[in-house]
Amino acid sequence: MTDTELLERQRLALVAASQASNALADLLRFSTEGPTLSGFTFDEDVVELLLDAAKISIMVTKDPQDAEILVAINARLEGWA
Q1: What are 33-74's pLDDT values in tens digits?
Q2: DSSP states along 10-52
Q3: How far apart are CA 21 and CA 35, in angstroms?
């Protein structure tokens, strides 16, 4: 792996961690505060954030066993963001 590839994978890992962190913060906020005045809502779409974090994580690890999962995630995320 070249230095450039390593830096790109590290950058992607940081993006995945950020997405997962945002989702986690929303879930923790809901668990302590309950639903907002508008009902059962989060600041962001938690499922999409977690799926995006998983997708990016798969891109970082490049594990061929995750190919089917990546296809399913991509289908679910199509049109989001």
Answers
A1: 877 665 666 666 899 999 999 999 999 999 999 999 999 999
A2: HHHHHHHHHHHHHHHHHHHHHHHH-SBTTBS--SS-HHHHHHH
A3: 20
